[in-house]
Amino acid sequence: xxxxxxxxxxxxxxxxxxxxxxxxxxxxxxxxxxxxxxxxxxxxxxxxxxxxxxxxxxxxxxxxxxxxxxxxxxxxxxxxxxxxxxxxxxxxxxxxxxxxxxxxxxxxxxxxxxxxxxxxxxxxxxxxxxxxxxxxxxxxxxxxxxxxxxxxxxxxxxxxxxxxxxxxxxxxxxxxxxxxxxxxxxxxxxxxxxxxxxxxxxxxxxxxxxxxxxxxxxxxxxxxxxxxxxxxxxxxxxxxxxxxxxxxxxxxxxxxxxxxxxxxxxxxxxxxxxxxxxxxxxxxxxxxxxxxxxxxxxxxxxxxxxxxxxxxxxxxxxxxxxxx
Amino acid sequence: xxxxxxxxxxxxxxxxxxxxxxxxxxxxxxxxxxxxxxxxxxxxxxxxxxxxxxxxxxxxxxxxxxxxxxxxxxxxxxxxxxxxxxxxxxxxxxxxxxxxxxxxxxxxxxxxxxxxxxxxxxxxxxxxxxxxxxxxxxxxxxxxxxxxxxxxxxxxxxxxxxxxxxxxxxxxxxxxxxxxxxxxxxxxxxxxxxxxxxxxxxxxxxxxxxxxxxxxxxxxxxxxxxxxxxxxxxxxxxxxxxxxxxxxxxxxxxxxxxxxxxxxxxxxxxxxxxxxxxxxxxxxxxxxxxxxxxxxxxxxxxxxxxxxxxxx
Lengths: 324, 312
Fold this sequence. Notes:
The complex is a heterodimer of chains A (324) and B (312).
Chain A: H1 4-11, H2 16-34, H3 42-59, H4 64-86, H5 91-110, H6 115-118, H7 129-133, E1 141-144, E2 147-150, H8 151-175, H9 178-188, H10 190-195, H11 200-223, H12 235-248, H13 255-279, H14 287-308
Antiparallel strand pairs in A: 1-2
Helix pairs in contact in A: 1-13, 2-8, 2-11, 2-12, 2-13, 3-4, 3-5, 3-11, 4-11, 9-11, 12-13, 12-14, 13-14
Chain B: E1 24-35, E2 38-49, E3 53-57, H1 64-71, E4 79-84, E5 87-88, H2 94-99, E6 102-104, H3 117-123, H4 133-136, H5 139-159, H6 175-187, E7 193-197, H7 205-220, E8 224-228, H8 232-238, E9 241-246, E10 249-254, H9 256-261, H10 263-270, H11 281-291, H12 293-311
């Protein structure tokens, strides 16, 4: 029996995918957990950031810093487009508009007419060139057992984690400041905050822009070691992010990071266990059914979290978002 | 309650709807707001006297709260203009209205539940550079102002007897304490005109007394108060001036003693039995005699029975 999947599962602790989801979930925490914006379009922000980076790098040959900037500016513009018409309205409207806008982005980049620029359904490969070009790590293989990384894998992991911790520190500073006090106030009751002379609309816009920027950076980290695939940024991704955020704690800074690590370990472990079970006929399912079953497990987990630990792993009970 | 011996004259000429004031802080003209075919507010002219406590009264649906919302920028009028302290405020968004010194509270209290009481208070403060995105990242730039704000907040909390609750979540406060917190929080903005929408709604009698004291204090400190209220006792006790609204219009205006004794105002807008204590049988009898002789008879019997019982 091959148990190497256990090691591979624990490799998820530091994988770029974990980093990307941690960052994107951190952005969601700024929007949803702290400001109370029901942003169901986080995957859309990731897509805008990812395409901003990949297109400028691969198709236009821009340097790394310019591509990163393009991704961030793209996400901020996307936040403006979504925010201007909806942030004055009730929270529900934002959720409807964001979920639709994210899908519009995904379908737009898949449109055959845009294939020369967006790569259509195939997405874009090779956006890591400018990033790997500045890799200072000597060529070689690093790691133990089945967890082996080449110099480029290690480079994105290191940069990714440094970025994640920097972003977490930044968000933490913001939330402990008077700025954070205002957005938390908006989450509780925006009219009360407005009555005290604060420009609620502009604060909500700022929160959406910060959330979007974090999603854009997350997408860059996600696509560098692999490739940009439009279908990785569907609504499913947004709900993964919500699961991660609620798992860790929607009003905590470290919650999304811890949540992302646990989420990917569990997903990877359950995949390994299920495939063992299928191979040895312990379960009456086929290997085709094995994939969807994992997500059934994720869904059940999300329900259990919201019911039994609404504050998440790191949150305080008294600060539970879904408090009755 | 401090009794004033000589009340200052607030108006110019005979008191009546739309009368000019000696020193108005807020002047509104032709303010209208319709919801579908219904005219909620249609105020031709009204002036709010500076440095006084003005009560806005009237039956439910008279448009008091809508008028409040219009004045504070929480709702947009169909037409109209109003000037606060020489500044035109029509069409100005709510947050800018508050910054100009016109702050309001809400009928349904809006305590920010998952913020501590102290954070609720600090939120009201002005001129905090840490409220800007880039300023917020550098604590050294806003630390000093934050300390001043905290002092101001603790002082106000002590005055409102909430200082022991400073670090508790606002959600843990009782309904009455939330009313106090909302008022204290509004004062953090250092307003000139405080607009209270039903400050006494849902407050127990013990707290009513202290709330009345706090409102009178605002006047002593030089602030102007405009409040909407249904509690006639409160209006009579603390208001210097009363404005009566009905069906969106201002129908009467004047000193509380005069306006509230005006039979037309009493009957039409307060109800003929507004002073009757419905908790007692005699009070109930008084109302019943007007509406249903059969019911009145029943209550009379009940009173007799009770008297008989007490006699034993």
